[in-house]
Amino acid sequence: MRIAKENNLQAPDFEQSDDFKAVLYRPSTVGVQTMYPPSTPQVPPKYPSTSVEVLNLIRVLNNELSRAEIQEILGLKDPKNFRENYLEPALAAGIVKMKYPDSPNHPKQRYLLTEKGNDIKKQS
């Protein structure tokens, strides 16, 4: 309760019946703008199955970039999340390609847009 008060948050609610339950409140995110929002109002019609995550990846890939550089630009910290939700779907769809495709763990591995990726980038 002290921490909530110090941070101008709503005091937690405590409920006890058969179980004990504590409801903690976090700061409001209303009106907070992000650089790359989690959703977009419209997906390009030519590629309707392109996810929002892949679209955000496409937006930041101007040159060839490393995985760490792309993650930093997107503000992502978890490499597993980035790989599973951004990079692997983009590679599987042929939107992004590796500079060293025969060596995925190459120390100088970079990612760049394919022609299909550039088409999607122009549409969005």
Write the layout of secondary structure elements.
Blueprint: H1 2-6, E1 13-16, E2 20-23, H2 52-60, H3 67-74, H4 79-92, E3 96-98, E4 111-113, H5 115-123
Antiparallel strand pairs: 1-2, 3-4
Notes on the protein architecture:
By secondary structure, this protein is an alpha+beta fold. It has a domain at 52-123: Arc Repressor Mutant, subunit A (Orthogonal Bundle), CATH 1.10.10.10. The chain has five helices and four strands, in the order H-E-E-H-H-H-E-E-H. The protein has helices spanning 2-6, 52-60, 67-74, 79-92, 115-123; strands spanning 13-16, 20-23, 96-98, 111-113. The strands form two sheets. The chain has a two-stranded antiparallel ribbon with strand order 1-2. Helix 2 crosses helix 4 (79-92). It is elongated. The protein starts with a helix and ends with a helix. It comes from Flavobacterium cheonhonense. It holds the Pfam family Fic-like_C.
